[in-house]
């Protein structure tokens, strides 16, 4: 980590973050951690926090949980959050599936966001992709009725896999089923990152999928 990232980690992690493996058994007490009752948004894979920090700042009415394995990314997210003076963010480091399975109760989330997950482009690695039938079923079970699963990717065949998996999940319905291909229009409120700009420059189409818990 950089000096600044280490400083942010030392200063903010004890209050804002925890390791998934360090959580006590049973459900995470989100209300106590945030000190309030509010809609809960979970972002899986916050990366370096470029998008996440802006989303958190734009949604002060929500309790925003970000889960990520990359320590420098979480430190950078805390630096960005400090500059934006947000207070509605908490961070978890570790496996999102373990968090969902063991520490989040059914029907406890208002939204789950997965933006530009690792595409594992080689066919033999596709099984490592996050968005699979089992993970989507688990995520759907943790959403409240009417809760939203929002996915975005710039890899065509991963987008198609996401669509197939989500359409095959009986707990979900596509909010944009009537749109061509079932793809959601790109939400104006989702910030455009350098990563996304590069995808455009390289000629890759960004696909958004927005499904709702039945």
Protein traits:
214 residues; alpha/beta; 8-stranded mixed β-sheet; 8 helices; 22% strand
What's the total number of strands?
8
What order do the helices and strands follow? HEHEHEHEHEHEHEHE
The number of helices is 8
* Order of neighbouring strands in the sheet with most strands: 1-4-3-2-5-6-8-7
Distance between the termini: 42 Å
Average pLDDT, rounded to a whole number, is 96
The main pleated sheet reads as: 8 strands, mixed
Family: Belongs to the class I-like SAM-binding methyltransferase superfamily. TrmB family.
Function: Catalyzes the formation of N(7)-methylguanine at position 46 (m7G46) in tRNA.
Binding site for substrate: 122, 154, 193-196
Pfam families: Methyltransf_4
What report would you give on this structure?
By secondary structure, the chain is an alpha/beta fold. It has 8 helices and 8 strands; from the N terminus they run H-E-H-E-H-E-H-E-H-E-H-E-H-E-H-E. The protein has helices at residues 3-16, 30-34, 50-58, 71-84, 96-103, 133-142, 156-167, 194-201; strands at residues 17-19, 40-44, 63-68, 89-93, 109-115, 143-153, 172-174, 207-213. An 8-stranded mixed beta sheet has the order 1-4-3-2-5-6-8-7, sandwiched between helices. Helix 4 (71-84) links the parallel strand 3 (63-68) and strand 4 (89-93). The radius of gyration is 17 Å and the shape is globular. The model has no long low-confidence stretch (mean pLDDT 96). GO terms for molecular function: tRNA (guanine(46)-N7)-methyltransferase activity. S-adenosyl-L-methionine binds at residues 43, 68, 95, 118. Pathway: tRNA modification; N(7)-methylguanine-tRNA biosynthesis. This is tRNA (guanine-N(7)-)-methyltransferase.
């Amino acid at each position: 980590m950089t000096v600044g990232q280490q400083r942010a980690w030392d200063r903010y992690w004890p209050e804002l973050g925890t390791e998934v493996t360090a959580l006590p058994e049973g459900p995470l007490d989100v209300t106590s951690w945030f000190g309030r009752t509010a809609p809960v948004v979970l972002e899986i894979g916050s990366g370096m926090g470029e998008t996440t920090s802006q989303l958190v700042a734009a949604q002060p009415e929500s309790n925003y949980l970000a889960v990520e394995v990359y320590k420098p990314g979480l430190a950078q997210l805390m630096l960005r959050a400090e500059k934006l003076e947000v207070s509605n963010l908490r961070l978890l480091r570790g496996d999102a599936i373990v968090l969902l399975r063991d520490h989040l109760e059914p029907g406890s989330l208002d939204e789950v966001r997965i933006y530009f997950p690792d595409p594992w482009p080689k066919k033999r690695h596709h099984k490592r992709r996050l968005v699979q039938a089992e993970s989507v079923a688990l995520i759907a079970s943790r959403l409240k009725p009417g809760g939203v699963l929002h996915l975005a990717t710039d890899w065509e065949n991963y987008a198609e896999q996401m669509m197939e998996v989500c359409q095959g999940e009986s707990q979900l319905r596509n909010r944009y089923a009537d749109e061509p291909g079932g793809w959601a229009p790109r939400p104006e409120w989702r910030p455009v990152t350098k990563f996304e700009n590069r995808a455009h420059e390289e000629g890759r189409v960004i696909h958004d999928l927005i499904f709702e818990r039945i």
